[in-house]
Amino acid sequence: MRPGETSNGKKPNHDQSIVSKIALSIKSQDGDEVYYRFPRDKKLQYLFTSYCKQKKLNYDAIAFVYDGQRVKASKTPLEMEMEDGDSIDAMMHQDGGGYALVMT
What predicted TM-score, i.e. pTM, was given to this entire model? Predict the structure, then answer.
């Protein structure tokens, strides 16, 4: 067996661990950014709940947006076609948007 080979004679794939994770950041409305290394094939829900716990936020009060579209927590970075270094925006839900009719 030569140096750098496994018992089956093949070189170990060191890139596999790098490829299986992606560097992502979550950016809040106030500009604060948190960086993560996250598995490409794991649901983003785990990333979002971790972010909310770290920031002491209510998970249900935050909307996560990527490329202008709201992200479903059941999706994975692979399904969303995310790349290394991509950023997800975390925004507070806003109620309202309508108008009030005031009669005098």
Answer: 0.71
CATH number belonging to the domain at 21-92, selected among 3.30.420.10, 1.10.10.10, 3.10.20.90, 3.90.180.10: 3.10.20.90
Separation of CA 27 from chain center? 10
| pLDDT tens, the chain, 104 aa long | 555 555 555 555 544 444 699 999 999 999 999 999 999 999 999 999 999 999 999 999 999 999 999 999 999 999 999 999 999 999 997 766 666 667 76
Measured between alpha carbons, how far is 46 from 59 in angstroms, rounded to an integer? Answer: 11
- Given CA atoms 29, 99, 71, 66 in this order, what sign does their dihedral have? negative
CA distance 94 to 104: 28
